[in-house]
Amino acid sequence: MTALPTARQVRGRLREARRARRTASLGDMLTDAYIFALFIGMYGWALIHESRDYLNAPATADSDPAERYWIAVAAVLAVAGFAWHALRTVGPIVVSPAAQTWLISTPVDRRAFLLPRFTALGTCLAVGVGALASAAALAGRAGGSGVAWAALAGAAC
Questions:
Q1: What is the pLDDT of residues 26-47, one digit of tens each?
Q2: What is the DSSP letter of 103?
Q3: Which of 63, 102, 119, 121 is deepest in the core (most CB within 10 A)?
Q4: Inter-CA distances, 4 with 1, 10, 100, 130, 147, Å
């Protein structure tokens, strides 16, 4: 009788199969990384710059600071909702038809197979939303403790 493969063995075989069929070169990968970094920098700078302009506008200069903080809370919640949608799209909560047919239906331990990917995606999500909350607090010119509390709230969200 043949022993069932472990989830680690299945992931290793999948990595080997993907490497054997990879057609992208190092230049393609570096180009993709450059474009991704360029878009993050460009849109990040625009978001921070426009947020500061909005928060320092004459119409908002005399407003209650609590109103500005609620805008930041709403922005963080909206991004957390988008991040949850992205996690469902690429994460182990929803699997592709091929993975469902060939992997999930096999007698491999599903928890051991899906847990590393779920943990990595959840960690990236918490760090990303925490960083966004910190950026929102910095745009609102919060103090050091305000930025820390914003990062903690964003990561917890």
A1: 888 899 899 999 999 998 888 8
A2: I
A3: 121
A4: 9, 10, 18, 40, 49
